[in-house]
Specification:
CATH class: Alpha Beta
Order of helices and strands: EHEEHEHEHEEEEHEE
Radius of gyration: 17 Å
Mean pLDDT: 95
Distance between the termini: 44 Å
CATH topology: Rossmann fold
Strand order of the largest sheet: 3-2-1-4-5-6-10
Shape: globular
CATH superfamily: NAD(P)-binding Rossmann-like Domain
Structural class: alpha/beta
CATH architecture: 3-Layer(aba) Sandwich
Low-confidence stretches: none
Strand content: 15-25%
Oligomer: single chain
Bound molecules: NADP nicotinamide-adenine-dinucleotide phosphate
């Protein structure tokens, strides 16, 4: 058995593929999400924890408990997140807060909770899934992009803060990845396989990052599909394409 890692968003898409890949490579995974029933993971080395990361108030207590129950945790792969796109006035205040809490605040809480233990260990990893929206703002993406810019600033600052410890910080910024992320959106990457990144590609990138020689840190990785295509679909009228 290698290390025990927390993977948020382990029930779908990037987090699910990453969990499968890491289990196959002999890691032990504590998965966090709200619903693991859609694609159950059958492994003795997988511990599912049901938690709503957008519900910020009870989160510190839940995270303290996880930390107490599993002092062996030596890494975080933070994948949980959601997309919502549209002009600012189409968002309710609640929708704005939800996106900020889930995509940004929950990651700061999770990190704060585990960091003191991590700093005492020789070798730990914190890998955040950012986005190409962390690199440039785009039409309809004001809140989503802001959450990912915030996460990027957090990751960069934390990297400096941890630079005298064994804690490695990495930010991965994908373009469009073929996952259920687009199920509620009115756009996606289109059907051709050059139009999207596979979740398994991100999982492989995460494995490579974890298995890099401990003395080297991969600070940030940007990935994009070979062909950049946006396909519009009319299912969610209030959830617009950023392009
Ligand atoms: N797909 C893309 O094109 C793309 C591109 C760039 C960046 N990203 C980022 O990649 C990350 C993963 O997205 P994905 O593409 O894998 O999407 P996905 O398939 O929809 O997966 C999202 C994951 O987040 C979890 N999640 C959502 N709301 C949650 C909540 N309130 N509490 C706890 N967990 C919650 C979901 O689990 P439950 O529903 O079970 O709670 C699920 O496991 C996100 O941060 C997204 O912003 C995606």
């Amino acid at each position: 058995m290698k290390r025990t890692l927390v993977v948020t968003g382990a029930s779908s898409g990037i987090g699910l593929e990453t969990t499968k890949k890491l289990l196959k490579n002999n890691y032990r995974i504590i998965g966090i999400a709200r619903d693991f029933s859609r694609q159950p993971i059958d492994s003795d080395n997988f511990i599912p924890i049901t938690l709503d990361l957008a519900d910020i108030s009870p989160l510190p207590q839940a995270l303290t408990q996880i930390n107490r129950d599993h002092p062996e945790i030596s890494g975080i792969i933070a994948c949980a997140g959601k997309g919502r796109f549209g002009s600012l006035e189409t968002f309710s205040y609640e929708q704005m807060k939800y996106l900020i809490d889930l995509n940004f605040i929950s990651n700061t809480y999770l990190t704060k909770s585990l960091l003191p233990t991590f700093k005492k260990k020789d070798h730990t990893d914190i890998i955040f899934i950012g986005s190409e929206a962390a690199l440039a703002g785009g039409k309809w993406g004001a809140i989503y992009s802001a959450t990912k810019f915030a996460l990027r600033g957090f990751a960069q600052s934390l990297r400096q803060e941890c630079a005298k410890s064994g804690v490695r910080i990495t930010l991965i910024n994908p373009g469009m990845v073929r996952t259920p992320f687009f199920d509620d959106l009115e756009f996606n990457h289109g059907a051709e396989e050059e139009n999207y990144i596979e979740a398994s590609d991100i999982a492989q990138t995460i494995l490579n990052t974890l298995e890099m020689r401990p003395g080297t840190v991969i600070d940030e990785i940007n990935l994009s599909p070979l062909k950049k295509v946006i396909t519009h679909q009319s299912k969610a009228k209030d959830n617009h394409s950023p392009h």
